[in-house]
Amino acid sequence: MNPVSETYVSNHPQPNHIFPLDFESVQDVVPDSHTWNSPLNMFNIDESSKHVIRSVALPVIDLDDPNALELLGDACQTWGVFQVMNHGVPLNLIKNIESESRRLFSLPTEQKLKAVRLPGEVSGYGLAHISKFFPKKMWSESFCILGSPVEQARKLWPDQDEADYSKFCEVIEEYRNEMKKLSERLMCLMLSSLGINTEDPNWTGSSSTGEQKDTLSLLQLNSYPVCPDPNRAMGLGPHTDSPFFTVVHQTGPGLHVHRNQVGWVEVPPLQNALTIHIGDLFTVLSNGRFMSCVHRAAVNQTRHRLSVVYLHGPPMDVKVSPLMKLVDPDHPPLYRSVTWKEFLDIKAKNFDKALDQLIQTVELGEDGKYIA
Ligand SMILES: C=C1C[C@]23C[C@H]1CC[C@H]2[C@@]12CCC[C@@](C)(C(=O)O1)[C@H]2[C@@H]3C(=O)O
Ligand SMILES: O=C(O)CCC(=O)C(=O)O
Ligand SMILES: [Fe+2]
């Protein structure tokens, strides 16, 4: 652990999976704590080949294309990941969030630790939330923002004049608004591709009180510093995202998605494209038609890579179940209903097998068909 973290920890006991390596003082070797050399045996992925495929083209969907709906449905069913062009998010806003992230991560470690994510909290600076599921540390640092960024930003830029944190907050809020708009549009398209009409107020399932609540939106900024030996380190271990889907902006190559029978495929950092990953809750909602996509982030020796991840999910306590329209005598409900909150608890205990825990067996009639 780096000296700043050490001092901090001795005063505030913390689990060690929150603190990133002190990248400011990284030498020319990857420490043992960060060396990924044993097979993970997660997600039933065959790890015999380290090869990353660059020749297989991932679906790229132009939202202005008249066939966008069909292409998008196809991409969700076959890949669980796709890239969108003409998404309507202003390019200068994307550049701005990139430079604000860069400004944040280039603060001295000591400063970033002032906004460290406390145990049990979602927002703040630290290792990615999923680090606790892996035996080795990741070559990255992240900053998670749930709700207003103001409180966190004040910790990062405390004594200076307002300009420092207000610029950051402005850009975050603006980006979040654009992401919300785009996500709602994508959600409608994805559901339409399944024959679901989102005008129906109950399409996400029902909350305990029956009232409509806001969907939850969360931003995570990731930073992957240059690494002296990228083959031995991991930026972000293999995982699926838990919400309905995530929208990712990356500044350079490093994102890999896994496809069965194919292997790890690189997601190219196309100019002006955003990457969408189907998450676990969409798998439940779509009754297994759209499977969440396993992905990871690699690091490199020359370029500091950044990514910005927006999570689009339901309110934490709203039950998500397979949509009624996707359940019929030939398609029984595969998963039991679950709230995002319950699902995160399940995932905390069964990281790569969380969805399997929701699989239910239903009684079938004599003809082998499901009776609703
Ligand atoms: C509400 C959530 C969803 C979490 C856990 C918890 C708080 C932060 C979320 C993320 C944000 C970034 C990707 C992810 C994979 C991560 O590492 O932290 C997400 C994870 C999940 O989708 O499970
Ligand atoms: O850095 C990336 O490209 C991916 C980040 C990611 O998957 C995540 O934060 O969940
Ligand atoms: Fe992810």
UniProtKB/TrEMBL annotation:
InterPro entries: DIOX_N, IPNS-like_FE2OG_OXY, IPNS-like_sf, Iron_ascorbate_oxido_reductase, Oxoglu/Fe-dep_dioxygenase_dom. One of its GO terms (molecular function) is gibberellin 3-beta-dioxygenase activity. Its cofactor is L-ascorbate. The keyword Secreted does not apply. Residues 165-192 form a coiled coil. The keyword Signal does not apply. Its EC number is 1.14.11.15. Keywords: Coiled coil, Dioxygenase, Iron, Metal-binding, Oxidoreductase. It is an enzyme of class 1 (oxidoreductase). One of its GO terms (biological process) is gibberellin biosynthetic process. Belongs to the iron/ascorbate-dependent oxidoreductase family. This is gibberellin 3beta-dioxygenase.
